[in-house]
TrEMBL record, chain A:
Coiled coil: none annotated. Residues 214-338 form the Amine oxidase domain. Interacts with COX5B; this interaction may contribute to localize PYROXD2 to the inner face of the inner mitochondrial membrane. It comes from the Bacteria. This is Pyridine nucleotide-disulfide oxidoreductase domain-containing protein 2. It comes from Agrilutibacter niabensis. Probable oxidoreductase that may play a role as regulator of mitochondrial function.
TrEMBL record, chain B:
It comes from the Bacteria. This is Pyridine nucleotide-disulfide oxidoreductase domain-containing protein 2. The lineage of its organism: Bacteria, Pseudomonadati, Pseudomonadota, Gammaproteobacteria, Lysobacterales. It comes from Agrilutibacter niabensis. InterPro entries: Amino_oxidase, FAD/NAD-bd_sf. PANTHER family: PHYTOENE DEHYDROGENASE (PTHR10668), PYRIDINE NUCLEOTIDE-DISULFIDE OXIDOREDUCTASE DOMAIN-CONTAINING PROTEIN 2 (PTHR10668:SF103). Residues 17-340 form the Amine oxidase domain. Gene3D superfamilies: FAD/NAD(P)-binding domain (3.50.50.60). Interacts with COX5B; this interaction may contribute to localize PYROXD2 to the inner face of the inner mitochondrial membrane. Probable oxidoreductase that may play a role as regulator of mitochondrial function.
Length: 527, 506
């Protein structure tokens, strides 16, 4: 039994779980990270569904991962290598295209070709958004204070927040207030006129949410994505060497080096409660592990409605978690290709293949895709974000062959009648025929196809509802309301039980902030 | 410019303009109210059918805030006490009706909800109590002047702290409920309370009433609180003799305090000299001087139409242009022979949340909803139909041609519920968003002078930094529905604006 005795147990070896474990081990704690599956990584895994073709199965780009985590855990030493994803190309229905290259002047010229007015506005827009992202960034690293509490800790937190507010200029505050509450469409309509530009930009406002560009609150999601930072540069997205599994492998390697015991095939059945405190976990195979604290890096529903028996949590809290919105809205199609997709707008192999290719001809196109999803259908004309990792990292596919990752929205988790194989096939077919409109050779190039629905995300990655953020980034599910009012500080109503995943502040993306802050709060409470 | 001895000119004799003017007159100021139309009242002014009989064109009910009624002594000037709220009834496809009253312990309501869900009936009293609390908080917020951030001085900080205390006093649970509910969609909000689709949709309909939003739009939790506050629950409270009596009482009080009202006196321009207001020029060319001008006209029309962009800082112009005005309300009024068969109360065609959302989808793309969300009220022989969504900006038609469709769509939608209605009609009047803009000067036909959306509320209404009713033009203030406290008939915006004017140094 002695080797089943830990200081801390972390449930789930996704990036947040691994980061929480690593930070605790770094502070000298004896830590186990338990993973239900045979692989670590959670939703950031690289899989090889077809021999020789490797995919970032779910999440597929990096940019939000906090730089201090990369430093603290020495991730580059453990194999983390981020390769640039330099451009975004939006094919247009008239055969033309809109491109944003990694060269500022080129991008400006390109936009000027379509709309001189937008080209003029673009730089200023970029500056405003970068300023707003910078201004709001400190909040990401802040443990949300409980505004209803009079405790010293919360008062200090509120004071800190107030001081932070005072440090911003009037203009910055208003900009942030607007960005928090506006729709992406209203924001972009104020700045730009060119539909493909607005469509492509608005896509960042809807990724992972069950909202359309016209829904209030989507400007914030857009900003959330703007906070992506690689080496201090805002809005730079990158691709991880070996796929997004490379990120979690590096974190796992760092965690192991720090002494974390990572156990795979260790499915947690229940959190053991003794004397009103979390005291360990019981595994599905009957094993019991003891620990002073347990941290869940699973989604809120699993963490509180499945792992913990109801009588250990207040009814109101249970109700709040039940009310937490986790509607998955996106799917993925991973394609193994015998040749590159040949886009009619830019024929032949070219720089577009090394960047993102976005099917987002207008905001209305995306809004209409959302309309279908809100009534329980997957979009017949979906928004698709494609990247071809094999062009960036040759190791991802056999020589001369390619892999393409297609992020697709909208595909509702609650599809009418439920997901089944026929619907999955139809969904995959819709995606391929949509791509075919812009790259007619796609169908004949396909040698392998993996279609992932929100239901599959739930089943494989264990995320309830299949929402990539473990819970939608809605205004009433952010900051001190995430995952529930009064419990946004990574603690839970069950003493000794902590919560540090995407369902906690500051929310989703391969960011790691929740895992890190949860570990820090555990250490603060350590007696 | 002719010399004048007015302290303040108020542009527009809608209820907010009149509330502001009456408070100023009561405070001893010499006030002139200018109204473009023949009659005062703005949205409350009555209209006539071909046979000359009058009807309320826009508001089936309304009540000014009780403290305004008291402070201005409106009862003395002919305002009758508010009528008790009638029932709010959702008409369902199968002929069933869901009848709701927000009066505490109303047995019929519980019985009606029980047809659909016993659990919902059990939760109803708690829901009503919560909504009343939430509306009371919103009322307090509407009374609190919104400061400029982040430099909140003591004068503004104190009322704000009081407001925060009001919120805290609700208790942790209700406080968080209020905060969370504001940014939620009506769907999310009602799902947290109820299970029956019929009940959820009936409530969501009130949330989106008058707003270009759907049951799934974020922020309709807030508009539910707003409409609940203004209605005093779910149903409209009719004003005895018509909503115009609110305006008439205000005019009488204003005149009694020595105020002067000129109708058929449209303001063509607000005169500005070196960032300072100097008076107004009328359509007739007449100029009237005053060092303070209050505009009850919507902010976009006031600033870009009456003041003019050249007088304003470029960035401010840009921000003013992007104030979201999105009218999507039309009205169909029917003068009948009395055999219309429509019962009293506020009747809604809002069977499901998806029905409401689909109606909004149409407006979103510039189309008239083929299956509209309707609200029907009666006043004697007159049947009034609130038609939503009928967007101001039509994509494939123009309002001159589309107006006939509205009446037909309304009949088609109501026929299953009221088969006798169509045959009972003698005269009808259709009011489109384009009519609202032309006749009432409402930009884009927006009844609220600016959408009540999250990024246009509280300290962001009408614009961030300008929620204190002032403008970049010294001496020009905004007091209409487009400013903090505004939207609907309460008079809060007019009263708030006066407080700022009386505080300002000349």
């Amino acid at each position: 039994m002695t080797n089943n005795q830990y200081d801390a147990i972390v449930i789930g070896a996704g990036h947040n779980g691994l980061i929480a474990g690593a930070y605790l081990a770094r502070a000298g704690k004896k830590v186990a990270v338990l993973e239900r599956r045979e692989v670590v990584g959670g939703a950031a895994v690289t899989a090889e569904p077809f021999p020789g073709y490797r995919f970032s199965q779910f999440s597929y780009v990096v940019s939000l991962l906090r730089p201090e985590i990369i430093r603290d855990l020495e991730l580059p030493r453990h194999g983390l290598k981020i390769l640039p994803l330099p451009s975004t190309v939006t094919p247009m229905d008239n055969g033309d295209y809109l491109a944003a290259w990694d060269d500022h002047d080129l991008t400006r010229q390109e936009l000027y070709r379509h709309s001189p007015r937008d080209a003029e506005a673009s730089d200023e827009y970029g500056r405003v958004m970068a300023r707003a992202a910078k201004a709001i960034k400190p909040i990401i690293g802040l443990v949300p204070p409980d505004p209803s509490s009079l405790s010293l800790r919360d008062m200090k937190g509120l004071l800190k927040l107030g001081q932070y507010g005072k440090s911003l200029s009037e203009k910055e505050l208003y900009q942030i207030a607007k960005l928090l509450t506006q729709s992406a469409a209203d924001l972009l309509n104020d700045w730009f006129e060119f539909d493909p530009l607005k469509g492509t930009k608005s896509a960042s406002g809807i990724i992972g949410t069950f909202l359309g560009p016209n829904s209030p609150g989507t400007a914030y999601v857009l900003l959330h994505h703007y906070m992506g930072e690689i080496d201090g540069a805002f809005r730079a997205w990158g691709f991880c060497k070996n796929g997004n599994g490379g990120v979690t492998q590096a974190i796992a390697s760092s965690a192991r080096a720090l002494g974390v015991d990572i156990r795979t095939n260790a499915s947690v059945q229940q959190v053991i409660v003794k004397g009103g405190r979390a005291a360990g976990v019981a595994l599905a195979n009957g094993d019991e592990l003891q620990a002073k604290v347990v941290i869940s890096a699973a989604d809120p529903k699993r963490s509180f409605l499945q792992f913990v028996e109801k009588q250990h949590l207040p009814d109101e809290f249970v109700q709040q978690i039940k009310n937490f919105r986790v509607r998955g809205s996106s799917g993925k199609v991973n394609l193994a290709l015998s040749e590159l997709p040949d886009f009619t707008c830019l024929p032949g192999e070219g720089p577009l293949h090394r960047g993102a290719i976005s099917v987002s001809p207008s905001m209305e196109y995306i809004e209409r895709a959302y309309d279908e999803a809100k009534y329980g259908q997957f979009a017949k004309n979906p928004y698709i974000d494609m990247i071809i990792p094999s062009m960036i990292d040759r190791d991802m596919a056999p020589p001369g062959q390619h892999v393409m990752s297609c992020f697709v929205q909208y595909a509702p988790y609650d599809i009418e009648g439920g997901w089944d194989d026929a619907k999955r096939d139809a969904f995959g077919e819709t995606v391929i025929s949509t791509i075919e409109r812009y790259a007619p050779n796609i169908r004949r190039a396909i040698v392998g196809k993996q279609v992932i629905t929100p239901k599959d995300i739930e089943d494989i990655a264990g995320i309830t509802g299949g929402n990539i953020f473990h819970g939608e980034l809605l205004l009433h599910q952010l900051f001190f309301l995430r995952p529930a009012p009064q419990w946004a500080d990574f603690r839970t109503p069950l003493p000794g039980y902590y919560f540090g995943a995407s369902g906690a502040h500051p929310g989703g993306g391969v960011m790691g902030a929740a895992g890190k802050m949860a570990a820090q709060e555990v250490l603060k409470d350590w007696k | 410019m002719s010399k004048s001895n007015y302290d303040v000119i108020v542009v527009g004799a809608g209820h907010n303009g009149l509330v502001a003017a009456t408070y100023l007159a009561k405070a001893g100021k010499k006030v002139l109210v200018l109204e473009r139309r023949e009659h005062a009242g703005g949205q409350l002014a009555s209209r006539a059918f071909d046979d000359g009989s009058r009807f309320d064109p826009l508001h089936a009910g309304g009540q000014l805030r009780p403290d305004i009624v008291r402070e201005l002594g409106l009862a003395r000037h002919g305002l009758a006490a508010a009528a008790p709220a009638p029932a709010y009834v959702s008409l369902l496809a199968d002929g069933r009706r869901l009848q709701l009253s927000t009066a505490p312990g109303d047995a019929r309501t519980l019985e009606s909800i029980r047809q659909f869900s016993a659990a919902d009936a059990a939760r109803w009293p708690e829901f009503v109590a919560f909504m009343d609390k939430a509306a009371a908080f919103l009322d307090a917020a509407y009374r609190t002047p919104m400061p400029r951030l982040p430099h909140v001085g003591l004068a503004e900080g104190w009322p704000l702290a009081k407001l925060a205390w009001t919120l805290r006093r609700l208790g942790g649970r209700d406080m968080f409920r209020v905060i969370r509910s504001m940014s939620m969609s009506a769907l999310e909000f009602t799902e947290e309370w109820f299970e029956s689709e019929e009940l959820k949709a009936a409530i969501a309909a009130v949330a989106i009433h008058g707003h270009t939003l759907g049951s799934m739009s974020a922020g309709t939790g807030y508009t539910l609180m707003h409409n609940w506050l203004n209605r005093g629950g779910l149903a409209h409270r009719p004003v005895a003799g018509g909503s115009v009596h609110l305006a008439e009482a205000l005019v009488a009080a204003f005149i009694a305090h020595g105020g002067e009202l000129r109708t058929s006196a449209g303001v063509q321009r607000i005169l500005v000299d070196r960032q300072r207001v100097g008076g107004v020029r009328l359509d007739s060319g007449e100029e009237i001087a005053a060092s303070t001008v209050m505009s009850a006209v919507d902010p976009r029309h006031t600033l870009l139409g009456l003041v003019g962009a050249p007088e304003l800082p470029p960035e401010f112009v840009w921000e003013t242009q992007s104030i979201k005005m999105r009218g999507a309300v039309a009205k169909v009024h029917l003068q009948t022979d009395g055999s219309h068969g429509v019962p009293a109360g506020t009747l809604a065609i809002a069977p499901t949340l998806k029905y409401l959302e689909r109606a909004f989808d149409a407006a979103k793309y510039g189309e008239i909803a083929a299956q509209p969300y309707l609200e029907v009220t009666t006043a004697g022989d007159v049947v009034s139909i609130h038609f939503q969504s009928a967007p101001y900006k039509l994509r494939h038609a123009d309002w001159a041609h589309a107006r006939g469709n509205l009446e037909q769509l309304a009949f088609d939608t109501l026929a299953p519920h009221f088969p006798a209605l169509k045959a009972s009609v003698r005269h009808s009047r259709v009011i489109t968003p384009a009519d609202l803009e032309r006749d009432l000067g409402l930009t884009e036909g927006d009844l609220n002078h600016g959408q009540l959306i999250l990024d246009q509320m509280f300290f962001m209404r009408p614009l961030p930094g300008w929620s204190n009713h002032a403008t970049p033009i010294h001496g020009l203030y905004l007091c209409g529905s487009g400013v903090h406290g505004g939207g609907g008939i309460s008079g809060a915006a007019g009263r708030n604006a006066v407080q700022m004017v009386l505080k300002a140094k000349p």
